[in-house]
Automatic annotation (TrEMBL):
Protein's UniProt name: Uncharacterized protein
Species annotation: candidate division WWE3 bacterium
One MF term in the entry's GO annotations: catalytic activity
Matches recorded under InterPro entries: Aminotransferase-like
Length: 68
């Protein structure tokens, strides 16, 4: 697993082109390392989103409690 694989996977997920990973890999366009990096990247992104949602919710609920 190289930095290039991680970068490629990250860009694919960021640009919303994750659906292209499987077809491209089927014709040998992406290495298994890139696909593995994409899975790792997807999980990291999901965790980050969950964390951000939690922090936003906490900040919102604190503000509501303070103002009411």
């Amino acid at each position: 697993l190289t930095l290039a694989d991680l970068f490629c996977a990250q860009e694919l997920w960021r640009s919303g082109n994750a659906s292209y990973l499987a077809p491209i890999s089927a014709i040998g366009g992406l290495s298994s390392e890139t696909l593995r990096a994409a899975e790792i990247g997807k999980r990291i992104n999901q965790l980050l989103l969950q964390t951000m949602r939690g922090e936003i919710y906490e900040a919102f609920s604190e503000r509501v409690c303070l103002t009411s």
